[in-house]
Amino acid sequence: MNLEGVEKTMLLTLYSKAKHSQQKNHKFFDKKAIDVVSKIDYDFSVADDDFLMKSGVIARTIVLDEMVSQYIENHPHCTIINIASGMDTRFNRLDNGLVRWYNVDLENSVNFRLKYIEDSERVTTLAYSAMDPSWADEIKIESGNVLLIIEGLTMYLNQNDVSDILKIINDNFRHCTIFVEVMPPASVKNVKEKSVEDTDSKFTWGVQKGNELLKMNPNFHWIKDVNLFDGMNVYMPFTRLFSWLPFIKNKMDYIAVLEK
């Protein structure tokens, strides 16, 4: 295995989904993740010991699965572009038999992914940095509805990187929706996930509210922010007791919804 740094985090998220899927009261079931994890020779014990990372992945998956499912229901022939896809298996969970799906990630990550998760007639994996405009040239739009998912990425970047990604999207898609995960600055500074740190990765960027993204590119409209406590409250209902408190809620990652 030649994965390095942040690339290794894609194994942690895959494992967390597989592990959750095997629990009796799972909130989503990911057979593909279970199958793939069983074939990868990797010490996942560090993920088992990181409750914060695991619960965050599960909460995020619950929230984004619901959001993406709703988008697919409203736009059954849509094109979905998953930026920094890693080992993501959302297509396998949510496919309606009609969507066109693109995964975009660094070449090393893509090569590893394709060893275990093959492309298909409606799934194409592209080897590009999210900040390389060339990936957009590879996208073939078969309908007017385009959804871009940016999950588990921006917190490892800087503001210029995020601005570059928004510019690429703006320059290449006349109409689109973006679901982008963002970490609040206080969490960037203070949250420590042991399994992430063990990959020599660290959180570096975030903004408090999704509408702040419009300062980088005013061509988008901010629709709303969806707090990941919405997923945590489903996964661990006892969090409802305190997740509404602003000083707690405002430290949780959220999915900013932008439209153009």
CATH homologous superfamily - what is it? Vaccinia Virus protein VP39
Q: What's the arrangement of strands in the largest beta sheet?
A: 3-2-1-4-5-7-6
Indicate the CATH topology.
Answer: Rossmann fold
Tell me the number of structural domains.
1
Q: Beta fraction of the residues?
A: 15-25%
Shape: globular
Count of beta strands: 7
Q: Give the averaged pLDDT, no decimals.
A: 93
Evaluate the radius of gyration.
Answer: 17 Å
End-to-end separation in angstroms reads 40 Å
How would a crystallographer describe the biggest sheet?
Answer: 7 strands, mixed
Percentage of helical residues?
A: 25-40%
Multimerization state: single chain
Q: Uncertain regions: pLDDT < 50 for 5+ in a row?
A: none
Q: What class do helices, strands and sheet pairing give? A: alpha/beta
Run of helices and strands: HHHHEHEHEHEHEHHEHHE
Would you mind describing this structure in some detail?
It is a single chain. The chain is an alpha/beta fold and 260 residues long. It has a single domain, classed as Rossmann fold (3-Layer(aba) Sandwich). The chain is 39% helix and 15% strand. The model has no long low-confidence stretch (mean pLDDT 93). It has a seven-stranded mixed β-sheet. Helix 1 packs across helix 4.
